[in-house]
Amino acid sequence: MHGRKRQTLEEANVRPPPVPSSASSVGRRARVSPPRARDRSVSPPPRSPTRSRVLNASPSRSQARREAALPKVKLIRALQDDAIRRRAARAYDATSMAVTARLLEINPEVFTAWNFRRETIATLETPPPSDSADSADPEASVPPYVPSLEDELALTEKTLRKNPKSYPSWHHRKWTVSRAAARASDDDASDSDSATRRRETLLARESKLVTALLDLDDRNFHAWGYRRFVNALRGTTAEEELEYAARKIRANFSNYSAWHLRTAALPLARGVPREAPGEERALPSEVLDEEYELARQAFFTEPEDQSAWMYHRWLVARTARDAAGAGDGGEAAREAFAREMRACRELAEMEPESKWPVATLARLCAEVGTEEAERERVESLRRLEGLDPMRRGYYCDCCESLR
Fold first, then answer.
1. For 199, what's the count of Cα atoms within 13 Å in the CB-facing half-sphere?
2. Any long-range contacts for 365-373 (C-beta under 8 Å, 24+ apart)?
3. Is 174 exposed, middle or buried (0-12, 13-18, 19+ CB in 10 A)?
4. 13 in the Ramachandran plot: left (φ > 0), alpha (ψ -120 to 50) or beta?
């Protein structure tokens, strides 16, 4: 009978429970506890009343925000539709200017509205051809509506206060200032002194405005671009630009735009002409030494900020390029590279976790090109594999290329 039962179990492919592996359980029969039935009489713990209120209130708050924003959305859509309809109908008048102004005050990113305003101004500034038959019409004596460029400057000032990095607002302000400067010269063509004063007053006001904006946010690249535009109209000298860049760098070492401005102004202000016409001015070694000192002050103060390291890299490239035409056979460049290598080694010892002095040291070793410098370059690249693991493959490839 027992054999019959065993055969039935084998036929049913029922496997016995596994034997425990511990020594203490050898010879003992494993106990299999039956699954415990779920006690449905026990209710789950109640929710926190605070969380319940939050969960229940979230949809209602979202709905309330949507309902509060609905009138504004409807107004924007109505203004957009009206502006597009008026532009399609070529309705260049004061009403169209008022509609687009109201729309842009709410949403400065509507490019079509800005384009429509420029079309309206350009159209209304050009007077229609006079007709002798209409000279007797009393309505013909009413001067035509011509939009004021001062209104455009005021509008862009409002929109930039709303969004200081609005692309269409900055573009429209550039267009307006260019047109206002040209109009000042045309209106006072007979009096050149008066035209110059009006133009200078306009550009001085714009320069003051953009300077205030950069004092609030020195990383607003729109303001930096607009400043270059205004200074080009004013004829600002490279020396003035260099002094402004130095002032902004002293206020904040981590100012990429100020370092970039320095790379553009330095050759114009301190460079010497080359023999070949059309080539960029060469920088004397004493000028480069001063710039190296400025960069060292920056990255010894904050080694992890890469803006000064990028400027230092530009200096190294300029030093190597200008050394080719130097009369000393490149001696000044070799001395500069040796000095900067010592500074990088010193900073790497002071800041062992910083990758920037090690990376710059490797680049300087490549410029020197001696056998000893190549060995130090490989050592620096190996060290960078640990300091900058995300770019480990790049450093490995650099080492392989040197073999």
1. 22
2. 365/341, 367/316, 367/320, 367/337, 368/334, 368/337, 368/338, 368/341
3. middle
4. left
Q: 220-224, 240-244, 316-320, 330-334: which has the minimum mean pLDDT?
A: 330-334
CA dist 58 and 50 (Å) reads 12
User: Is pLDDT above 90 for 279?
Assistant: no
Q: Would you call 326 exposed, middle or buried from its count of C-beta atoms within 10 A (0-12, 13-18, 19+)?
A: middle
Please name the amino acid found at residue 402.
Answer: L
Q: Which amino acid is at 3?
A: G
User: What are the beta bridge partners of residue 272?
Assistant: 282
Whole-prediction pTM: 0.74
Long-range contacts of 307-315 (CB under 8 A, 24+ apart): 307/253, 307/254, 307/255, 307/256, 307/259, 308/253, 308/259, 309/356, 309/359, 309/360, 310/256, 310/259, 311/259, 311/262, 311/263, 312/340, 312/360, 313/360, 313/363, 314/263, 315/288, 315/291
